[in-house]
Amino acid sequence: MPNLPHVSGAEIQRALERLGFHKARQSGSHVVMKRDAKGCVVPMHGEVKIGTLAGLLRQAEVTPEEFMLALRK
């Protein structure tokens, strides 16, 4: 498993959009992303903690490898 990087909420949102997610709604500084029946909540902060990112990916059922590839595109 690759080490997850320190990234912003906007970068996470862009990477998830490349993986087929779309922005369903936003409440304050949190964006709900959906792909079919799967979804996750992305905090739109300057830097998201590694543990938060790992939990977010688990919730979205996206592997860290898939996320890292989408982040680099």
- Share of helical residues: 40-55%
| Envelope shape | globular
Largest sheet, if any? 3 strands, antiparallel
Radius of gyration: 11 Å
Order of helices and strands: HEEEHH
Quaternary form: single chain
What is the strand arrangement across the widest sheet? 1-2-3
Which secondary-structure class do the elements indicate?
A: alpha+beta
Contiguous low-pLDDT stretches (5 residues minimum) are: none
Strand content: 15-25%
Total strand segments? 3
User: How far from one another are the termini?
Assistant: 19 Å
Number of helices: 3
Mean pLDDT: 93
Features of the shown structure:
3 helices; alpha+beta; 41% helix; 73 residues
List the helices and strands and how they pair.
Blueprint: H1 9-18, E1 22-27, E2 30-35, E3 38-43, H2 50-60, H3 64-72
Polypeptide structure, described:
This protein is of the alpha+beta class. The protein has helices spanning 9-18, 50-60, 64-72; strands at 22-27, 30-35, 38-43. The protein has a 3-stranded antiparallel beta sheet with strand order 1-2-3. Helix 1 crosses helix 3. The longest helix is centred in the last third of the chain and has 11 residues, at 50-60.
Overview in brief:
With 73 residues, the chain is an alpha+beta fold. The chain is 41% helix and 25% strand.
